[in-house]
Amino acid sequence: MFTRSLCGLMLVVVVASTLFAQEIAGRLPTVESLPDRVQARIEVRTRAAGNAHNAGRFGMQYFMFITKRWPNAASTPITVAFLGGDRQLRQRIQDTVTEWSQAGTLRFDFIDPASHTFREWSRSDTSFKANIRVAFDGSEEAGYWSMIGVDSSDPTIIKPGEASLMLQGFTTLLPQDWQATVRHEFGHALGLLHEHQIPVGGCDQDFRWEDDTGYVPTQDSYGQYITDAQGRRPGIYTLLAGAPNFWQKDKVNSNMRQLATDSHNKDFGAFDAKSIMKYYFDPSFFRDGTAAHCYSDENLTISDEDKQGIAKWYPPFGSQELSNLLKLQQDTMRQLAPVHNMQQVQTLQSIK
Ligand SMILES: [Zn+2]
User: Fold this and answer.
1) Domain membership flag for residue 10
2) How far is the CA of 178 from the centre of ligand 1 (A)?
3) How many domains does the chain fold into?
4) What is the whole-number distance in angstroms between the Cα of residue 346 and the centre of ligand 1?
5) What is the dihedral of CA 271, 273, 274, 280, to 10 degrees?
6) Strand order in the sheet with 78-83
7) Ligand 1 centroid to 16 CA: how many Å?
8) What is the residue range of the signal peptide feature (predicted)?
9) Which of 85, 209, 230, 333 is the most buried (most CB within 10 A)?
10) What is the pLDDT of residues 64-92, one digit of tens each?
11) How far, in Å, from the CA of 150 to the mean position of ligand 1?
């Protein structure tokens, strides 16, 4: 199945996307993807921010990342609410994401202080019931996906009645590797990005983007592109253009391509092949198959480098590290403020 993955040190970014969610026997998995309208809002902001003369000495990616970190996590829990799911499922998810909170100074709070039961949200909410809103119905977008960090409850990007983290189908049947999916998606919710999009990862060179020469588009009964009668294979653009993803080229690029190189790449650490944020890609996605640098088996657990990243970005309350991070984050947010306003205007114009 197509899985997830991310960063050596933490990343940055913007768009979350891509995970291969549901595995259906004999079929390509769906790639993790944010709802199009949410993605559009993020991209508008990203473009605007890229034009702002703010970034200063910080590269764009770093700049975006620092704004997505939960700023007060060391002292204030990150709240989580559910739409659907029984008590046992909610408890399992809570237990699993505790692995993240043990890696850094942060805590997830799942419990409504009034009822002493799991916090809940609904699609008719007009104010945010929680920072992270989990759903299982695939309403906004099918599959598994999560907003990146504070985007989860940023009113310029998402509404109180919208899910910020989707675990579609968990209420019907828990997938065998459900814990890995929960770890990956909550990694996004803390601000982590995909390993294959790290500027230093080198995955761009490994991926087999284009079809084999002379490939004749050939689809199976599911609408998936498959090897043609002469054994020529579809490339990534073609594979993802077919079922079950139906992605256009620009969407493939935003979800799969490496982030641009910038002066802060050195902060990202080396490519971490064991990261829970690293996707599993079928060998056919790579020029060199299983020998590709970016190929690895599916990662199911939070890696040591994942934990180091969380420890770095969520340091202890009262520490100098936290003080430095907060100053950097506040400075960056201040520079971004005009962009926020501009983004809001554009969002209003584009929402029907
Ligand atoms: Zn992901």
Assistant:
1) no
2) 14
3) 1
4) 27
5) 130
6) 108-109, 78-83, 132-135, 165-167, 144-146
7) 6
8) 1-21
9) 85
10) 567 788 999 999 999 999 999 999 999 99
11) 16
| Ligand 1 midpoint to CA 208 (Å) | 20
Domain that holds residue 107: 36-338
Q: Per the structure block, which two tokens stand in for 109?
A: 């709070």
The predicted-structure confidence for 22-37, as pLDDT tens digits, reads as follows: 333 344 555 566 666 6
pTM to 2 decimal places: 0.79
Question: Cα of 194 to ligand 1 centre, how many Å?
Answer: 6
Dihedral through CA 75, CA 107, CA 59, CA 53, nearest 10?
Answer: -50
Could you give the 3-state DSSP secondary structure of residue 29? Answer: coil
- Separation of CA 88 and ligand 1 centre (Å): 25
Task: Of 15, 34, 32, give the one whose Cα is nearest residue 280.
Answer: 32
How far, in Å, from the CA of 277 to the mean position of ligand 1?
6
Going from the Cα of 159 to the center of ligand 1, the distance in angstroms, rounded, reads 21
Count other C-beta atoms under 10 Å from residue 109's C-beta: 17
Q: How many A from CA of 223 to the centre of ligand 1? A: 24
Look up residue 136 and give its two tokens.
């299982």
CB neighbour list of residue 145: distance below 8 Å, 6 or more residues apart: 16, 17, 19, 21, 32, 33, 34, 165, 166, 185, 188
Any domain includes 2: no
Neighbours of ion ligand 1 (CB under 5 A): 4, 19, 32
Is 188 in contact with 16 (CB distance < 8 Å)? yes
User: How far, in Å, from the CA of 5 to the mean position of ligand 1?
Assistant: 6
| Token couple for 85 | 């799911």
